[in-house]
Amino acid sequence: MTASREIRLAARPVGEPAPQHFELVETTVPEPEEGQIVVRNTWMSVDPYMRERMDDVESYLPPFQLGAPMDGSAVGEVVASRSAGVPVGATVVHFLGWREYAVMDAAAATVVDTALAPAEAYLGALGTTGLTAYAALTEVAPVRQGDVVLVSAAAGAVGSIAGQLARKLGATRVIGSAGGPLKARKLVEEFGYDAAIDYRAGSLAAQLAEAAPDGVDVYVDHVGGDHLVAAIDALRHGGRIALVGAISTYNATSPVPGPSNLFSLAAKDANLRGMLINSYFHLFPEWIGKAAGWLADGSLHTELTVAEGIAQAPAAFLDMMRGGNVGKMLVRL
């Protein structure tokens, strides 16, 4: 039988996760049953939402189980198949990451076209990462011609795409917030932002007032906390906020208070709307049709931060949670 390795949840963290909360385990790959496939994973994704799944609480996805392999988005090559619809050699995306080999029902995998884009792109710009930016700026907090748009975690997986997309959708000024001078420089030089806020360099509110003295129309929130407060203060009449994430709160050990200025949204006739990406999967064909062309002609710039090997997956996850990535954080298996 084929040997494989996988990452299991060894203990539930209280506060910030650490290496001891993960366990690397050697295992063997079972033979596929009728209708199943075996996939040799080549890339896997680590994402902020996984931190919430480390806690034993009810959410839109079930929590990771102690002593069981973790899961998440991955892409790989089919090496064995008992399904007529998914042949050996096909490249598929699926949700059994955090392991070198995965056995699954063929219906749980989606065949992707690597002639259109590299396999790893289907975990980034052509995956739920890119779709999140697209849904946020077209459905949740739609950009209108002439808007000023603010994006937090702007050098991250979704944010690095969102800034460029806002421009394509008609924004006249796009402002990004990120941590550190390197990321701030990349926002302007490589990811299409007009102005960058380094939230580590001083008052976030003061920097935002300088970058957008007349306020903002759209805010894509990945951070929560002080970023959300500052964005609400700067929001213009009729402004829109997409609540995509709140990474500043994910390691909290007690309930986090909401923004103190929340009710000011009423006087601004503004909209603050959460989004769950599963609700926007119907936009995938539309998004891939646009984004694949932009990737091909170079008008959509993406970056990857890559860790090598399954053993480095926990470190990649922890690094991503601390903001160590530019663009999408992936593990090459």
How does the major sheet shape up? Answer: 7 strands, mixed
Helix content: 10-25%
CATH topology descriptor of the largest domain: Rossmann fold
Low-pLDDT parts are none
* SS element count, helices: 9
Beta content comes to 25-35%
Describe this protein's structure.
- Helix 2 packs across helix 3, helix 2 crosses helix 8 and helix 5 packs parallel to helix 6.
- 47% of the residues are buried.
- The chain is globular.
- The model has no long low-confidence stretch (mean pLDDT 97).
- The protein has two domains: 150 residues, Medium-chain alcohol dehydrogenases, catalytic domain (Quinone Oxidoreductase, Chain A, domain 1); 151 residues, NAD(P)-binding Rossmann-like Domain (Rossmann fold).
- It has 333 residues and is α/β, with parallel strands linked by helices.
- InterPro entries: ADH-like_C (IPR013149), ADH_N_2 (IPR041694), ER (IPR020843), GroES-like_sf (IPR011032), MDR_fam (IPR045010), NAD(P)-bd_dom_sf (IPR036291).
- One of its GO terms (molecular function) is oxidoreductase activity, acting on the CH-CH group of donors, NAD or NADP as acceptor.
